[in-house]
């Protein structure tokens, strides 16, 4: 079982920052993703958003999606496998 932790942010800090709890969670998730501290999946879960909504939030913040040459190679291999199965 994974350890869990609840982060409590006093309302006065949210008010001072002019943010809602949801906005702060999204900002934190986007920051951690940008710093490569969280994967896309984990960051979007922290943000409480579906994949497309989280990607839109990243775009608003000019945060690029991490996509390496290795990711591309894996995607190409997957597409080749799918194409082979479709041809059968």
Give a topology summary.
Layout: H1 11-17, H2 21-34, H3 40-47, H4 51-60, H5 69-87
Helix pairs in contact: 2-3
Describe this structure in a few short sentences.
With 88 residues, the protein is mainly alpha-helical. It has one domain (11-87).
Structural write-up:
The chain is elongated, with a radius of gyration of 18 Å. The protein has one domain (11-87). It contains five helices and no strands. The chain is mostly helical and 88 residues long. The chain starts with 10 loop residues before the first helix and ends with a helix. It is 66% helix and 0% strand.
Count of DSSP E strands? Answer: 0
* Main sheet attributes: strand count, strand direction, barrel closure: none
Number of self-contained structural domains = 1
From the spread of the alpha carbons, the general shape counts as elongated
- Give the uncertain stretches in residue-range form: none
Roughly how much helix do the residues carry, as a percent range?
55-70%
Structural class: mainly alpha
Alpha plus pi helix count: 5
Please tell me how large the radius of gyration is: 18 Å
How far is the N terminus from the C terminus? 42 Å
SSE series: HHHHH
């Amino acid at each position: 079982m994974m350890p869990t932790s609840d982060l409590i942010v006093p309302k006065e800090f949210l008010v001072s920052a002019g943010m809602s709890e949801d906005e702060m969670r999204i900002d934190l998730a986007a920051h951690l993703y940008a710093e490569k501290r969280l994967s896309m999946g984990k960051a979007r879960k922290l943000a409480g958003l579906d994949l497309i909504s989280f990607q839109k939030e990243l775009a608003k913040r000019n945060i690029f999606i991490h996509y390496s040459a290795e990711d591309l190679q894996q995607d190409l291999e997957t597409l080749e496998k799918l194409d082979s199965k479709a041809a059968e």
